C-alpha cells in the first residue's frame, strides 16, 4: 500500500525533498510494524476489569462457603424499615454434615436483610414471610427426594435396579423387603453445604431436551 502510494506520487511529480516522498513507517522493522498495527484496546479480551474482580472477590469473601449466605446476617431492622418482620428461625429436617444438629432456615428479617445486601432494594417487604415459607417448603421437599434416592441407590445401581425393576408402584414394597433382609435402613444422609448449580443440566433435563428435538410436537 505504501509503495503504491509512493509510486503514484512519483508519477505525478517527485518532490525536491527526498524525505517527503518516503513513507514515514519503517517497513524494515517488523517489530515496529507489529506495534503500529496493533490496537491498544484488547477487543477480544473477556476478562473482567480489575475493579469488577475486586468487587466480586469482596462480595464472595463475605459469604459462608457452607450455605452461600453472608457470614453474619443481623436480625436488626433495616434502615427506614417500617414493617416488622419475625426474627424466629425454623429448624429444618436436614442434618448437618458436621453432625452438629440440623440446618436452620433464616428468619424473615434475616432474609430481608440479605436481599438488601445483595442489591434487591425493590423487594416487597410484605411478601418476605411468604418467600421464606416457600423457600423452606421447597428445601424440605428436595431433601425428601434426596433421602429416598439414597435409600434406593445409595448402595449401588444394581440394588437400585432391583428395587425399581417391578415399577414405581411396587418400589416402596420392594425397598422395605430388601431393607428387612439387610437388617434395617442404611444411615441417613447429611448435608455438608448448600450450593446451587444453575448452569449444570440434570440427566432428566438433558433427556427432555433431546426428546424435544426429536419429537417437538410432544416434548417441545
UniProtKB/TrEMBL annotation:
What domain of life is recorded for the organism?
Eukaryota
**InterPro entries, sorted:** Holocyt_c/c1_synthase (IPR000511)
GO cellular component annotations of the record? mitochondrial inner membrane
Q: Where is there biased composition of kind Polar residues?
A: 43-57
Give the family per the record. Belongs to the cytochrome c-type heme lyase family.
Q: What does this protein do?
A: Lyase that catalyzes the covalent linking of the heme group to the cytochrome C apoprotein to produce the mature functional cytochrome.
Q: Tell me which PANTHER family the record gives.
A: CYTOCHROME C1 HEME LYASE, HOLOCYTOCHROME-C SYNTHASE
State what protein this is by name. Holocytochrome c-type synthase
Protein source organism: Parathielavia appendiculata
